[in-house]
Amino acid sequence: MSSSARISACVIAFQEADRIGDCLRSLAFCDEIVVVDSGSTDGTQDIARGLGAVVVDHAWPGFGPQKDLAAQHASHDWILQLDADERVSRTLRHEIETLREGGFAEHAGWDMPRCTNYLGAWIVRGGWYPDRQLRLYDRRRGSWSVGREPHPRVGVEGTVGRLSGDLFHDTYRSFGHHLATIDSYTTIMAQDMAERGKRARTLDLFTHPLARFVRFYVLKRGFLDGWRGAVIAITAAYYAFLKYAKLMVLQEGRATQRPQDAQTGTFEGIDDRTAVGADESAPRSRAAERTR
């Protein structure tokens, strides 16, 4: 089998000892697994090595740059990029194995639907599904977006194919983890917007949160997901509010950052790496996958 027909799975991680095992086991079909860890102290690296992964310890440069670094350490050109809180479903695995047998000749990359488990339930409405992610790509024709953006995208030169198997996403460990992630990510976003010369108005504190709530809860039918749908829509609105409120604070020069916080993307010392992020109780069949 030529190098172009092999797959390197790449995972970035930080303090993911409780989740990285399931992630890596779902990637056992790949020809290589590379884990780039940014200084975990909870045993994440030992677990990854124990499961046969090549582990690279590298200081945190940001989400996109860290993912590009992982791809650079891979031995093969085709990259399957996951976060430590994600897993490949059986259906998706079979699709990727079939593509590998054919040499991936048709496209420069492939996207896949991502299904998220939120506080114990799979969310299939409210704008969270299918949430397609381009995660399988030829590194010779693709790279991740640069900067501190917490949700980077990989861009490829060429066409992108579509897979139907789900990428499982075991997201926040708790509601508190969700809120901490919002705080961290909105700080990163506000700083990025400020650096790009974006400005916030008082009106933005009302219009953007309202628009987010209506989109997630009404237009995307989040109300059908019960109390979780309501929580998701409200926290989406809160995310928008915090982002613009923090931008206003920054542009008025009243940020409460300590010097070291500016390097980690925090207002009050929350390290953005803690927001990076799989259990086999997930549905076994395609039909079951959709009935969550």
UniProtKB/TrEMBL annotation:
Highest taxon in the source lineage: Bacteria
Region annotation Disordered: where it falls in the sequence: 258-292
Domain called Glycosyltransferase 2-like: residue spans: 8-101
GO molecular function, one term: transferase activity
Keyword Transferase in annotation: yes
Keyword line: Transferase
Ranges annotated as biased composition (Basic and acidic residues): 281-292
Pfam families: Glycos_transf_2
Family: Belongs to the glycosyltransferase 2 family. WaaE/KdtX subfamily.
PANTHER family named among the record's database cross-references: GLYCOSYLTRANSFERASE (PTHR43630:SF2), POLY-BETA-1,6-N-ACETYL-D-GLUCOSAMINE SYNTHASE (PTHR43630)
Name assigned to this protein: Glycosyl transferase family 2
Organism: Rohdeia mirabilis
Phylogenetic placement of the source organism: Bacteria, Pseudomonadati, Planctomycetota, Planctomycetia, Planctomycetia incertae sedis
